């Protein structure tokens, strides 16, 4: 009996070993076939790129997780040229002619599958993540009244309230001399969240006034980190059904914070929906037509379609994130570049203070006549586009031809904005802050036109950012109020820039550094502020 049991055990062990060997061989053979195909027979096989990126999407996932994707893309384009294969089925194209062909109104593309992941917790895509072109166009029509010229005029008054608070808070402690050190990024972030919540929901987060809601930017950052790299996982189709469920809480802290951010946005929406419901019952109409007033009362004239609750929740999360971040990073970055370039700071301060005699005068249409202010904002957005890396577009039936290269259906292509914005053939001295490159009278009309054709921080075409004009209003009001009422200087050593001891790509001291996690995250500069009245009385 013992001999029989021993023989059976040996046979079973041998069987398990053989099974393991067969499975191992099968996996090796499978990956060998896949990698060989991707390197030799795949439609993108002839395009250069990092070796591992040509056979797998894992390098992309890693750089997205690290927040260095824009630096990786720049390194790749410098090494391999204008067309780089950065994934098994993905290309980054940096030629000026590619931008309108990929993102323009006639582009034969749709948004890539990565967009399916971002709003999964809401149960429906937001307007910015909507892949279906017809559905996206309908959603844009619903949103259009909130960004009309009339709405922008009303919005300016509300943004001014937050801009005044920003200027006042920065000036605290500077009434009799230079204030203590303050982190410009923190205050720009508070401003961004306050003005966008006021415009979106009719009530501010109050971050400029107190600590209560200052935790929100932190969970937004965590949510962005998680969603950015997860959306590119090779096995995302198996992960996506788990997102938005209780399981997500146990994946990682970033994943849990992503749910927390969604819950916060949903609670803001629920409060706004309840207010709208009460107003309708009472037969009243809100005197402040914020963004969600338009969304809650939108109805398609042809189909009778209105927004679903899930669509509204997705838009709620989007409006807070997209509306606050782009403005905040641009204010902080612009202040960094102005402090790094005293001549530019002096010229801008002079323009603002000569244009207005009091803070009450800081408004449009006169604000829009300040050419140097507008140029400083454009140059900052060129150097630090809020979404610096390639946003994927999937080629549709019939393919797409760019610069004599034909790309078949199913291929992912995109425009690497950070790379394109630092192309020396279009922007001489691309790492230098030169606002005058966007002023026709100080350059040539042709060069300014060429610069603006490539500088696309809000993208172009039907999928561009609908809030572009509102963002410019917020940026101008914030910078004008701060620099009209205050003098600003560097506190100690200028923070926010790169350094020789930093990782590759972050060695430039004159460049404001950011982490690329869907939207850009950053720190600094540290500043000291003195009330302007001190030196003029």
What's the gist of this structure?
Belongs to the cytochrome P450 family. This is Cytochrome P450. The chain has 537 residues and is an alpha+beta fold.
Key features of this structure:
heme, globular, 537 residues, five-stranded mixed β-sheet, three-stranded antiparallel β-sheet, single chain, Cyt_P450_sf, Cytochrome p450, monooxygenase activity, metal-binding
Describe the structure.
A hairpin with a 2-residue loop joins strand 1 and strand 2 (90-93). Helix 3 (58-66) packs antiparallel against helix 10 (216-230) and helix 14 (309-340) crosses helix 16 (371-383). The protein is globular, with a radius of gyration of 26 Å. The model has no long low-confidence stretch (mean pLDDT 89). The protein is α+β, with helices and mostly antiparallel strands and 537 residues long. The protein has a domain at 125-224 and 261-387 and 457-536: Cytochrome p450 (Orthogonal Bundle), CATH 1.10.630. It is built from 20 helices and twelve strands. Strands 1-2-8-5-3 form a five-stranded mixed sheet. A three-stranded antiparallel sheet has the order 4-12-9. The protein has a two-stranded antiparallel ribbon with strand order 6-7. The longest helix is centred in the N-terminal third of the chain and has 39 residues, at 2-40.
